[in-house]
Design a protein that fits this description.
The complex is a heterodimer of chains A (356) and B (565). Chain A is mainly beta and 356 residues long. Chain A has three domains: 197 residues, Phosphohistidine domain (Glucose Oxidase, domain 1); 68 residues, OB fold (Dihydrolipoamide Acetyltransferase, E2P) (Beta Barrel), CATH 2.40.50; 56 residues, Roll (SH3 type barrels). Chain A has four helices and 27 strands. Chain A is elongated and about 95 Å long. The two termini of chain A are 24 Å apart. The model of chain A has no long low-confidence stretch (mean pLDDT 90). Chain B has 565 residues and is α/β, with parallel strands linked by helices. In chain B, the strands form six sheets. Chain B has an eight-stranded mixed β-sheet with strand order 15-14-13-16-17-18-26-22, with helices on both faces. In chain B, strands 3-2-1-6-12 form a five-stranded mixed β-sheet. Chain B has a five-stranded parallel β-sheet with strand order 8-7-9-10-11, with helices on both faces. The radius of gyration of chain B is 25 Å and the shape is globular. Classes of the chains: A mainly beta (356), B alpha/beta (565). At the A-B interface, strand 1, strand 5 and strand 9 of A face helix 4, helix 5, helix 10, helix 12 and helix 13 of B.
């Protein structure tokens, strides 16, 4: 039988993380090199506002002759008002002044391309581990031993910090009264969902990241304005983190963790990840492929069972009817609450990681 | 001896569908079909796995061996195993990321956008010459970011009627050359403007971009010619198809390169229009895109939204139209509807298990159609003879009345039209098959592809709710007649089963036009039976739904009851 989507959870094993520059740049490490979370592993130039300066036209000189009149060329910085090209002789000299401070990027056809506030992006490892692969001019793959959980959705980039479970949260929610300065610099895990005010307070306090069970979709437009990444483990709405995942978070509270939001892709669902590096004293096993069989742990990802977890009770060979009449392939699942339900294959995810 | 048996496939963004076609009593017929989830996301990341799974299911249904060592058996063996040929289409590739530039004024940019949206593209930016020369702002930065990221596939330049000035185009080319030379990659550039400017533009851009020349999109004012640019865009999409993980092992068995689904579907819609001399509209609600395909009087037009489908990109649809626009189609309150739509967007392969979730997806499908139509710049759908629906949700529906009502609500056709459903999402597969064996495609299209839902009469006009909009008399060819009147604001379904024909006499009241261009003018027409029957949609155009939620729900429920579910 065809197995459903697998949702990766590694309680302990070898896990790897791809760290990529937002733009092609320079990779500063070698395969085999050990890295610490705050090590810079790559660097890239970030494009900023640009202006096309039609200098030759303004000076009334031929486009192909512009270089003869330039005082500053590609690669050089200029100040606002600085003369960057001169044509003609006194008293009929014509000057071209830089309209803004910046760096000249390129010159062609009598034009200059001026970049207004060039900056450099530094890619940090965010993970203690070993570089296993260098992706030419784009980034690295870092491998470590520890725990890994895939999230359902995330936004806001990557983060590194100490994992702290929100202690006094009413109903497990991230609300203003649940969070205080003790969470400054931490990756905060709230069992359930967050309010806008709660996230605002987290911003004031200066958290490095927030992990939630879910998020009301009405806050999706607000979240990108925060300075830290937000990851949800289950889906949109008001759903708590499923039992096996939350117990893993609890187990590792106080350890350093890395949140990676992943790169959005139109037709391939690349999930965000939380990685918690640690050593258990034994050699970390490599993950095996998922096994979809009776007894497998699954979580349900669509109404009316969204957010519930259970075990596969049977794999019926025949299609079955859903509530509105169509026949689909599915399985019977024993929910942790005790109920046995039929679920279309498309609506469940295999929780990869059997020791949960 | 020609090719006798085929497997065709459509590798969609969510579902992979396969079909077995073979000769039965001297004619090509659909023998079996199968489907499986497309395996593009982790943990699979190989599209061929879902393809083989779908073929495996079809083997079971057809009781015929089609695979050996993970490959299709070709040619067909003496023991009946295997097939003679295989063709496929796909919509699972990443769309082309495009920047469009045009001359001053809206016309040239509009034509470039129409060419771009005829296939799988994401238009990341659109400039006119003026905007580029003002040369600052976010748009320019986005353009440069795309170049730096290496994720801009192509630039499409339109503009300049034949015989018009060439200088503005050359100046624009110089600005582009400056920008492109600053990027990390060499994008494709399709120049589809004034032909006199070609050599001058080429001189500037040669060496900075991969330049291709297409025929002028707007050779004369009011005359649009999209085909040249479309062809070059589709050629570039071929490159995107080649990047789909695992596509190579599927294509290895194929008689022809794997085609974009929209292109093949467009062929099928054009074929229907030409063969039966009809004005045809095709609507495809896919998991990652929505397509409208119009063929009438030798004119063909397609419009695709490649960033939104009934799954991927629904968050963008919500951002544009708001959740209330979708909820107005539900006959009940639904808590957390917005969250449910978001969850579908990020888990697009999930399936509506509950009735309320199904109604929500149907509501989304209505708005997707309306939105796709609006994006073509048309205020309303021009009258058509035949509307053909295809795509995941619609073909899953077990009740054809639901499909008919979704089409009526989403597209709001006027006049007299037939409705048909591509039950197995076969049309694009036949479009691809037509390139290899046109006779097979034509025969299967004629016999096994479309489920006739029935005929819809939608008079145009306004009256008070409850006033008579039209009277009708239907005389069945097998004897018997039925007559009645339909009031404004209501839907009426008159039984006319499959295979039956009838003569329909329509007598609209003085305020209504049944598509004859004059109010009150009556008509007599032949109609054919279908899964739903004859539908008289006298709800008016555009459809009006009250703002108040309870009355809105009552009205939507009434329409559902009137159609029969």
């Amino acid at each position: 039988m065809y197995y459903p989507s697998a949702f990766k959870v590694v309680p302990y094993g070898l896990v790897s993380l791809e760290r990529l520059l937002p733009f092609p740049g320079e990779v500063l490490v070698e395969p085999g090199q050990r890295v610490e979370p705050m090590d810079v592993v790559g660097r890239a130039h970030i494009p900023s506002q640009v202006r096309i300066l039609h200098v030759a036209q303004r000076l009334s000189v031929a486009e192909e002759d512009l270089q003869k009149y330039l005082l500053k060329g590609p690669g050089e910085r200029v100040e606002q008002g600085e003369v960057i090209a001169v044509a003609g002789r006194r008293p009929f000299r014509r000057l071209y002044r830089a309209p803004a401070e910046g760096r000249i990027v390129n010159e062609a056809y009598g034009r200059l391309l001026l970049e207004l506030s060039p900056s450099t992006y530094e890619l940090r490892a965010y993970l203690k581990g070993v570089i296993t692969q260098v992706i030419s001019s784009r980034g690295v793959v870092i491998e470590t031993s520890g725990a890994m959980m895939e999230g359902a959705w995330a936004i806001g980039g990557d983060a590194f910090g100490v994992l702290k479970i929100l202690g006094q949260a009413p109903g497990g929610r991230l609300v203003p009264e649940a969070i205080d300065m003790g969470y400054h610099g931490a990756i905060v895990v709230a069992e359930s969902w967050a309010t806008k005010e709660g996230l605002g307070k987290a911003e004031e306090i200066g958290v490095r990241g927030v992990i939630l069970g879910s998020l009301p979709s009405s806050l999706v437009g607000f979240v990108p304005s925060l300075s830290f990444p937000v990851m949800i483990m289950e889906g949109f709405g008001e759903i708590p983190i499923s039992r096996p995942l939350f117990s893993l978070f609890r187990q590792h509270a106080g350890r350093e963790a890395c949140m990676a939001s992943g790169i959005p892709h139109r037709l391939r669902l690349l999930r965000p990840q939380v990685i918690i590096p640690f050593l258990r004293g034994e050699e970390a096993p490599r993950g095996e492929g998922p096994t979809f069989k009776e007894g497998a742990l699954v979580r349900l990802v669509r109404e009316p069972y969204l957010g519930k977890v259970g075990y596969v009770a049977s794999l019926p060979p025949q299609k079955r009817k859903v509530e509105w009449g169509v026949e689909v392939e599915g399985v019977e699942v024993d929910l942790e609450e005790g109920e046995r339900v039929f679920v279309p294959l498309a609506n469940l995810e295999l929780l990869e990681g059997s020791s949960l | 001896m020609g090719l006798e048996s085929f497997v065709t496939a459509d590798l969609g963004s969510i579902t992979t569908r396969v079909t077995l076609i073979d000769q039965v009593a001297g004619e090509y017929r659909l023998v079996a079909h199968g489907s499986a989830p497309t395996t593009l996301s982790p943990p699979w990341e190989d599209i061929s796995l879902g393809f083989l799974e779908a073929i495996g299911k079809m083997e079971t249904v057809a009781q015929r061996r089609l695979l050996a060592q993970g490959r299709l058996i070709t040619p067909e063996g003496g023991d009946g195993s295997g097939i003679d040929g295989f063709v496929a289409t796909t919509s699972a590739m990443e769309p082309l990321r495009l920047v469009v530039a045009g001359m001053m004024g809206p016309w040239s940019l509009r034509s470039a956008l129409r060419a771009a949206h005829s296939t799988y593209t994401l238009v990341e930016g659109a400039f006119t010459v003026d905007e580029l020369r003002l040369s600052s702002g976010e748009g320019l930065l986005d353009f440069l970011r795309l170049l730096k990221e290496g994720s801009l596939d192509a630039i499409l330049i339109s503009g300049g009627a034949e015989g018009g000035p060439t200088l503005p185009l050359v100046e624009m080319a110089k600005d582009l050359a400056l920008l492109c030379a600053s990027g990390e990659m060499r994008p494709h550039l399709i120049f589809a403007g004034n032909e006199e400017a070609r050599a001058l533009v080429a001189e500037v851009l040669e060496g900075v971009v991969d330049l291709e020349m297409a025929s002028n999109l707007l050779p004369r004012l009011g005359e649009e010619s999209l085909a040249g640019a479309q062809e070059l865009l589709e050629k570039l999409i071929g490159g995107k198809i080649a990047l789909i993980p695992g596509i190579g092992s599927v294509e290895r068995c194929s008689l022809a390169p794997i085609q974009p689904t929209a292109r093949a579907l467009g062929w099928a819609i054009r074929y229907l229009a030409q063969e039966y001399q009809l004005k045809v509209l095709g609507v495809d609600i896919g998991g990652g895109s929505v397509g409208l395909f119009s063929a009438r009087d030798d004119r063909y037009f397609s419009a695709l939204t490649s960033d939104v489908g009934l799954g991927y990109g629904l968050d963008r649809l919500l951002a544009e139209i708001g959740v209330e626009q979708i909820l107005r189609w539900l006959p009940f309150d639904l808590e957390g509807a917005r969250d449910r739509i978001f969850n579908k967007a990020f888990r697009p392969r999930t399936f509506p298990q509950s009735r309320e979730d199904l109604f929500l997806e149907q509501a989304v499908a209505r708005e997707l159609m309306a939105w796709a139509l609006e994006r073509t710049g048309e205020r309303a759908l021009a009258p058509v003879d035949l509307i053909v629906a295809t795509g995941g949700l619609l073909s899953h529906l077990s009740d054809p009345r639901q499909v008919a009502l979704i089409l009526l609500d989403g597209l709001q056709p006027t006049g007299i039209s037939s409705l048909a459903l591509d039950e197995f999402s076969l049309l694009p597969q036949l479009g691809a098959l037509a390139m290899a064996e046109p006779l097979a495609a034509a025969q299967v299209l004629a016999r096994d592809t479309l489920l006739n839902l029935g005929t819809v009469i939608a008079p145009l006009g306004v009256a008070k709710e409850g006033e008579i909009a039209l009277r009708f008399k239907m005389v069945y060819s097998e004897g018997g007649a039925i007559e009645g009147e339909v009031s404004y604001g209501s839907l009426e379904v008159i039984p006319l089963p499959f295979g039956q024909r009838a003569t329909l006499e329509l007598r609209p009241t003085q305020s209504f036009d049944v598509g004859l261009g004059r109010k009150g003018r009556g008509a007599t027409t032949e109609v054919e039976g279908g899964a739903v029957g004859l539908i008289i949609d006298a709800r008016g155009r555009p459809l009006f739904l009250p703002r108040e939620r309870a009355t809105q729900q009552e009205k939507v429920q009434k329409w559902m009851w009137e159609v029969g579910f």
